[in-house]
Task: structure prediction
Amino acid sequence: MKDSRKAGVPSKQKRCSYELGKSSSRSFNQFFRALDPIKAVVNFPKHSTLFEEGLFPDGIYILVQGKVKLSVDLKGGRTLILGIAQPGDVLGLSAIMSGKPAEFTAETLTPAQFSHVERKEFLRLLEEHCELCVLVVEVLSHQLREAVEMIHYSSGSQPAAEKLAALLLSWMTADGEVTGQGVELKLPLTQEEIGQMIGVSRETVSRLLAGLEKDEILSLDGSLLRVLKKEALEAVAKPEDALAQRAKAGQKVEVLVPDGTRNTSAGQRQAEAVIKAPK
Result:
C-alpha cells in the first residue's frame, strides 16, 4: 500500500508536554493523556501530505504546532477545502476506527509538528483499555458535529461576500494580532484556495476583496490582511443582523455592494451597512 506521507522526521519520546489549542474539554484531555506512552513526535515541512483521500492512514496525528489544510476532490476535477486544522485537532481517527480509507487529504500549510500514534499501537491500546473507547466516541462525535456544520456552510445559499467575510472574521479571531492600524493576520490560503473553501472562483474572491478594500473595510498587501473596520466586516457577514440592530437604534441604513452601488435586496446584501444619522 502506498505511503502517502512526505519527508516526515519522527523522533520517539516517552512523553510530550504541551498545551493543545482545542483540548479544553475534560474528555479531550483524557484522550490525549492516554496516548502519552505510545505517541511519537513527528515534524513535517510545509506542503507535506500526511495522508490522502482514498488511502489508508498509517495512524492518527494530533496537531501540536502549525496548520493543516483538509480537502476533498469533487467530480469535474474541482476541489473543496473542508477547513484548516488547528493545534489540538486529531486527524485520521475516523479512518483508523472504521478500517476504511481516509475521507479527505491532509496537507500542511506551514511547517508542523504532530504527535503520531501508529495504527496497530492505537488499536492495541483500545483493546487493553476498553474504557478509552468512550473517549474515542466523544472525540468522533465532536468531529461529526464540525463536519455537519461545514456541510451547511459550504452548501448554503448565502451570498459569496457573506461567506468570505465570515471566513475572514473567523481567521481574525483565531490568529489576528491587534496593531495601531487594525487587526493583522497572514492569510493561510491563496485566493484560489479561499474560493475552493467558499465555493466560488478565484476571480470572485479577488473582486470581493477589492470591493472591501475600496470601502476601506480592510487592506491587503500580498498575503498580509489588515482588518480596518471590524464592525463593518461583521455587517457584511451578517447584514440582516446588523441592519436590524441599527434600525432598532433609530439609524437610517443604506446597503452598498462591493462596487459601491446600492442594493436593498435581502438576498444580495453583500457589503458594509452605511449608517447615516436621521435628519
In short: The first strand starts at residue 9 and ends at 12. The chain has nine helices and 15 strands. The domain at 160-276 is CATH 1.10.10.10 (Arc Repressor Mutant, subunit A).
